[in-house]
Each structure stands twice: as C-alpha cells, then as structure tokens.
Amino acid sequence: MSSRDRPELPRRRFLALGAAALLLPSAALARPALREALRRGGHVIYFRHGATTWSGIDHIDWPRERQRLLSDLGIAQSERIGAAFRAANFPVGEVLASPFARCRDMAEIAFGRVEERRELLGLLSDDAGRAGRIAYLRDLLTTPPAEGTNRVIVAHRSNIEEVAGARLAEGEALVTRPAPQGFETLAQWMPEDWARA
C-alpha cells in the first residue's frame, strides 16, 4: 500500500493527542504524578527493543544467530527496566513483543514472560500485511488494558513512529493512556528514566 493510499485522518487524530507531550523532555514531566498513575494501571507502555549488537534490517525468517541481538548494554537496560518496575510496584498485565529475538529477549529479561505477536513485526522488515500491523498497534494503544494493570509492548521504532509520530532510540519507551478520541502520550522515557521514576 502506498503512502497516498493510507488513510491519513485517523493518523492525524492520534498525532494531535500526543504532540504536546512529545515536545516536553522527560525531565519536565511530573514524575510523582505519573508514578502514581502507573501504579493504578490503565496505561500502555511501548518499548523499542534495547541496544543491539549491530544496526540494519534483518528478517524474521533468519535464524536467531543471524538476527540483530541485544548487546551487553541492551541486556543491562532490560534488567534495569524490570528492576525499576518491580521496585515501583507498577502492575504489568499483558507483555507483548515482536517475535524478533531482540524484542522477545528484552521482554523476557525485564518482565519474566512474553507473548509473541507477529502483528508487531517491524514495518521495515516486511511489506506484506503492513496496514494490518499498523491497525493492530493502533488498537493496542486505544484499548484499555485489563483493570489495574499496564500493557507492555516491546517492538520496533517503525511501528510506533507510524502510529504515534514518536521516534524512539533503542531502549526508549513511550508511555500512553487510552482516551476517548484515541490515546494520550504522557511521557517518552529512556531506560535510565525508569529508575528515577
């Protein structure tokens, strides 16, 4: 599907909801208020996978040893994020990840469990089903998680950039909350921000 064939109105609506928060640096956000909100649940936290061993585009049909994998830094980022969630008592419900090893591994290291979803494959990795993957992520961001929990997603930069306009670094997260007209962006945090949260 070409860019001119994609529906633009919904994308603009989602971008408008998150634009103001994305302009703020993470230090400017009200950490205590967000910390308490995360403890109550009701949020969707989208992580780009942690730091990797190389840069480039790989394919899901490649064996694990040929894929981009988490580097030592990426493993450490995942461990720190998981420890911060446990220390802050942030309740985690669903943990969904792209089946690429770097995403699955980060989710497993940080949260101790993961459900792989092919619908979270990166948009740059495979053109087939692109529109469906965009719609799937949009649905995850706009549908409230189970009561009293937060939904965690570990996937790729291309997906969240398309749906929310956020360009995440490796290990960075977008904290969102479903809203009547789509979703709200509350914070964009690097791995080290979670310990300070």
UniProtKB/TrEMBL annotation:
Q: Which SUPFAM superfamilies match?
A: Phosphoglycerate mutase-like (SSF53254)
Q: Name one Pfam family in it.
A: His_Phos_1
Q: Which SMART domains match?
A: PGAM (SM00855)
Q: What is this protein called?
A: Histidine phosphatase family protein
Q: Which organism is it from?
A: Roseovarius aquimarinus
